[in-house]
Write a structure and sequence with these properties.
The protein is about 60% helix and about 15% strand. The chain is α+β, with helices and mostly antiparallel strands. A 5-stranded mixed beta sheet has the order 2-1-5-3-4. Strand 1 and strand 2 (about 10) form a beta hairpin. The chain starts with a strand and ends in a 7-residue tail after the last helix. The model has no long low-confidence stretch (mean pLDDT about 90).
């Protein structure tokens, strides 16, 4: 049997493990102590969904069994949150320049920042979903008194309004939404996930 974790082969010595499930349970025990969670399993080249998990646990180990695991650590999530916090702080300042850029014909610059915002939000939401694997550490994150989920329900509507204003080239609405709605919320988000003393 060979075992890979995040693409790197581990030097594994089997003790009493006889099945795929035995290996996975043993690995999970060691991960728990290190604050690491498994987020993906590939067995002999096949990606294992949650529905298939129980069925594979009874499969006997063989010499050619190949198990590939993807994992994420609590520390990696914290570092990602910190990087997103810095990104959102920097983006807040540049978003407020969008109305002026549109007025002066710098539409490419304006749209680049909008793309950065969308990409940043997508990336953050991925990290936020992984943070749910560590509820004791990240389960109580509050942004302006709201959970991450509730915050983004409201924020998504603002982004839709912002998109509509851009499509209509409504510079007044673009400026108001950026300055008074989106940027303050990005600041609050950045503060909530900086984890200076918030953890």
């Amino acid at each position: 049997m060979t075992l890979y974790v995040n693409g790197e082969q581990l030097d594994v010595t089997l003790e009493n493990e006889k099945t795929v499930g035995d290996v996975l349970r043993s690995f999970e025990e060691s991960c728990e102590a290190a604050h690491i969670a498994t987020i993906g399993i590939v067995l002999n080249g096949e990606t294992i969904s949650a529905e298939k998990f129980d069925a594979i646990t009874t499969i006997p180990l063989a010499d050619d069994t190949k198990i590939e695991l993807s994992v994420v650590s609590e520390n990696a999530i914290q570092e990602s949150f910190k990087q997103h916090a810095q990104f959102f702080k920097e983006l807040t300042a540049s978003l407020q320049q969008i109305p002026m850029e549109l007025q002066s014909g710098k539409t490419a610059d304006a749209h680049k920042k909008i793309t950065q915002l969308a990409d940043g939000i997508d990336s953050f939401c991925h990290t936020a979903s992984l943070s749910a694997l560590f509820p004791q550490t990240y389960g109580n994150i509050q942004i302006d008194g709201k959970s991450i989920q509730d915050f983004f329900v409201e924020f998504t509507q603002l982004l839709d309004d912002f998109k509509q204003a851009l499509e209509a080239n409504d510079l007044v609405s673009i400026g108001d939404l950026a300055e008074y709605e989106i940027c303050p919320r990005l600041d609050s988000l950045a503060t909530a996930i900086s984890f200076g003393d918030n953890k």
